């Protein structure tokens, strides 16, 4: 009998399932054996068990392997929720990717998981339908791809018997390129009317008037508003994951001239201290964009869609597309619009239509 090399994990059949055999240098006696919960008669059982072998061998090589971790984790729970699975997966990914990427990308998917009307991975088909009805195609496709990767990992660890998300993204059509989907003028007016009198009336109107990115409007402080309300300075965006103001997407500062409507809008607010936020949440704190979209924007826009006043749901970010389109239609040049909204003239030229010249922002 040939002795196994140190660090090599054996894969063997035990009853109807596969189990792993650890090297004697790692464990002795019955503790050498780890049940995977993967059935021999499963089409992908062997492949999944083999991936688990390679994963453990890699951990042994790195010196991070702990027998107790796998004794507890490699049994398939009766019911593991998507939320719990995703949490375990992100904890696993912490050692592989930057913290900022983890928070921005993986944290964003956690927000979608919290909105899902389904709890378990076996509902993958229904989740796909929900995503396509409530999110853009590209967002739905990206979520399914990430979730499939998480389930592949879960299967390799024996947490799941199969990956129900595998292949679900293949038929989701995504148009390549920069997608512009502005609200029409009548839709914009309906949205402004539905927010009229609410706490977020001025915030929504500011977005439509300026074309600011949502995070830039949230980050706006009174020190950025001219004393005579003739202009505002945009030099930061609010990063929800960090709970902090950070440089704008392009890391530039820009000056937006105030037309009479925007000046009146800002004058109608109570001017606070220089570092106070111009627009706040219902509690007087910085606006949480996730909560704003979930509890204020989405319900209002969905209701307008049901009433036939808005053709289809679009997120608040599309107020930016609307403002840029209206600026160009009013006569501002591409270069002028680019300076106002913080895009390059090339982006404006390639993705928006514009005509003659004007020097003021259009009113609503």
Question: Can you walk me through this structure?
Answer:
With 364 residues, the chain is mainly alpha-helical. The chain is 46% helix and 9% strand. It is built from 14 helices and 7 strands. The strands form 3 sheets. It has a 3-stranded antiparallel β-sheet with strand order 1-2-3, with helices on one face. Helix 3 packs antiparallel against helix 4, helix 8 packs antiparallel against helix 10 and helix 8 crosses helix 12. The termini are far apart. Residues 1-5, 72-78 and 353-359 have low confidence and may be disordered.
Secondary structure class reads: mainly alpha
Uncertain regions: pLDDT < 50 for 5+ in a row? 1-5, 72-78, 353-359
Helix content: 40-55%
Gap between N and C termini: 84 Å
In N-to-C order, the SSE pattern is: EEEHHHHHHHHHEEEEHHHHH
DSSP summary: helix tally: 14
Tell me, briefly, the overall form.
elongated
The total beta strand count reads 7
- What portion of the residues fall into strands of 2 or more residues? 5-15%
Nearest-integer average pLDDT? 82
Strand order of the largest sheet: 1-2-3
Profile the largest sheet.
3 strands, antiparallel
Radius of gyration: 27 Å
């Amino acid at each position: 009998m040939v002795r196994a090399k140190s660090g090599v994990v054996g894969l063997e059949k035990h009853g109807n399932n596969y189990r792993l055999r650890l090297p004697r240098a790692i464990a002795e006696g019955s503790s050498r054996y780890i049940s995977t919960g993967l059935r021999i008669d499963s089409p992908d059982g062997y492949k999944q068990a083999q991936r688990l072998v390679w994963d453990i061998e890699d951990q042994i090589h790195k010196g991070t392997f702990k027998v107790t971790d796998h004794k507890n984790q490699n049994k398939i729970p009766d019911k593991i929720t998507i939320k719990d699975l995703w949490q375990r997966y992100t904890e696993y990914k912490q050692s592989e990717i930057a913290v900022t990427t983890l928070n921005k990308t993986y944290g964003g998917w956690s927000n979608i998981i919290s909105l899902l009307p389904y709890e378990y991975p076996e509902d993958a088909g229904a989740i796909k339908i929900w995503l396509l009805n409530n999110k853009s195609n590209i967002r739905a496709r990206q979520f399914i791809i990430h979730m499939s990767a998480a389930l592949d990992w879960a299967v390799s660890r024996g947490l799941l018997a199969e990956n129900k998300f595998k292949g679900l993204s293949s038929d989701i059509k995504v148009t390549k390129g920069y997608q512009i989907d502005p609200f029409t003028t009548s839709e914009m007016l309906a949205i402004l009317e539905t927010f009229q009198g609410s706490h977020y009336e001025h915030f929504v109107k500011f977005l439509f008037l300026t074309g600011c990115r949502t995070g830039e409007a949230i980050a706006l402080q009174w020190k950025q508003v001219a004393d005579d309300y003739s202009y505002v300075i945009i030099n930061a965006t609010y990063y929800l994951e960090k709970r902090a103001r950070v440089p704008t997407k392009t890391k530039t500062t820009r000056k937006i001239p105030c037309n009479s409507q925007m000046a009146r809008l800002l004058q109608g607010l109570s001017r606070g201290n220089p570092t106070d936020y111009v627009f706040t949440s219902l509690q007087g704190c910085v606006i949480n964009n996730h909560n704003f979209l979930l509890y204020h924007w989405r319900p209002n826009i969905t209701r307008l869609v049901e009433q036939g006043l808005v053709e289809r749901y679009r997120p608040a970010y599309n107020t930016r597309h609307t403002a840029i389109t209206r600026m160009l239609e009013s006569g501002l040049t591409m270069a002028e619009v680019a300076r106002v909204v913080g895009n390059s003239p090339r982006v404006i030229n390639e993705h928006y239509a514009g005509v003659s010249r004007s020097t003021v922002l259009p009113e609503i």
